[in-house]
Amino acid sequence: MLPTASSKLIVTAALFALSACGMLAQDIKLYYTAVNVADSTQGFSGFSQFPATNNHGSVALVAARTGDGPGVIKWEDGAIGTIASGGSLSAFGDDVVINASGVVGYAANLTGTVNDRAIFTSNGSWTHLIVDANQQGLVGRFLGSPSINASGTIPETLPSVRCSVFGSV
Question: Shortest CA distance to 85 belongs to which of 73, 98, 99, 103?
């Protein structure tokens, strides 16, 4: 007697179910641990949408601190440090970056100027200005988002402009 289509389907379903049980019985290894970096109980609010992490578990993000306003903070080895806040800076961009050395790149508006935005790097001890839109003759909102490499270099994200002048002799 030849097997019918329904008996083939039953055997296939049974084999599938047995193989699925074997897969579920395997150990699943988790390669991450969830850690509370900052929350409102530590005096923070208004967190950025895009925190950045590096391979050492450090986290950089924009958050508002009660009394200080918004700024860039870095969580590293269980401690929170301020990278940049208030003063001559405002409107920090959500898209901070951090490299393996813990150097953070971020963008912010420069207060007291018209339509000026800049990109900086900092580790919390020192700060470097990478590019200032007004100094480069650019409109600040077109500056772009920072990115950073392992050595802490941020490529300038300036728009490329080429001009040609034609004239008659």
Answer: 73
β 44-45/59-65 pair status: antiparallel
How big is the CA angle at 106 (ends 101 and 108), to the nearest 5 degrees? 155
CA-wise closest residue to 136 among 159, 113, 153: 159
The amino acid that residue 57 corresponds to is G
Residue 3: pLDDT above 70? no
What is the C-alpha separation between 86 and 74, in angstroms, rounded? 16
Model confidence at 161, pLDDT cuts 50, 70, 90, reads very low
Enumerate the β-bridge partners of residue 53.
59
Query: Do 99 and 148 contact (CB within 8 A), yes or no?
Result: yes
List all residues 6 or more positions away from 17 whose beta carbon is below 8 Å from its beta carbon: none
CA–CA gap between residue 146 and residue 106 (Å, rounded): 6
Please give the backbone phi and psi of residue 123, each rounded to the nearest 5 degrees, phi first.
-110, 5
**Cβ–Cβ under 8 Å, residues 63 and 45:** yes
